[in-house]
Amino acid sequence: MPASAADGGPAPALVNGRIITPGTEHQLGTYGLFPPSAAQRRTVTPGAVPLTARNAEPELLWIGFAELCGGAATRADYRTLVDRHSTWVIDGVPDPEAVSAEEAPAWRRFGDAVEALCEQGRTLFVVSAHAPHWERATVAWQGASIPGAADVPEVMAGIARRLSGLVRVESTSGAVPEGVSGS
Fold first, then answer.
1. Order of strands, edge to edge, in the sheet holding 123-127?
2. Per DSSP, what are the bridge partners of residue 61?
3. Nearest residue to 67 (alpha-carbon basis) of 57, 59, 77
4. Under a CB-based contact definition with an 8 Å cutoff, are residues 118 and 4 in contact?
5. 164-168 long-range CB contacts below 8 Å, 24 or more apart?
6. CA separation (Å) from 180 to 58, 60, 151, 167?
């Protein structure tokens, strides 16, 4: 029997949700997701660090990658948010193959958030302007040899494993989504 997160093993892959590229209103609407209006913006405080979400209701947290992963949120903060919100939409997810020392901390935090979602079996929609390929990103980060980012290839491999169960929805139109570029 495979190990589970409850008995100390790795969390299983997410199966509820989608990876949506580029995140047009039509693509999102297909899954009952409608870009939040400015009036729906909320500040959530899972710990000491407040985060600005595009929408935050018990059943839905819609937040930009930069807001969720670009600050000082911790694993404990992500676990608290997972307890509060059953479905997450993280939009504005950058290309994980764009390797830079500045992006390493954000990818670590994204990995922590994805891990927390997996532990609770939540639903995740990842919205990105370009199709994210974490397996290729793992290789790109391995070859980069960035000081202080030696763990990022492992983080990318973990993200790839956790998101491997999500169906990819990609538009061939190349349209850039309006209003879905982060918070």
1. 55-57, 60-64, 87-91, 123-127, 17-21, 167-170
2. 56, 88
3. 77
4. no
5. 164/13, 165/12, 165/13, 165/14, 165/15, 166/13, 166/14, 166/15, 166/17, 166/18, 166/19, 166/124, 166/126, 167/18, 167/19, 168/18, 168/19, 168/21, 168/131
6. 21, 16, 30, 19
Quick: pLDDT tens for 8-20: 556 688 999 999 9
CA separation, residue 164 to residues 15, 22, 48, 56, 140 (Å):
8, 18, 32, 26, 18
Residue position matching structure tokens 């020392």: 101
Residues 64 and 75: their CA atoms lie apart, in Å, by 17
The values of phi and psi at residue 131, to 5°, are -60, 110
What is the Cα–Cα distance from 29 to 33, expressed in whole angstroms?
Answer: 5
Global pTM exceeds 0.90: no
pLDDT at 89 over 80: yes
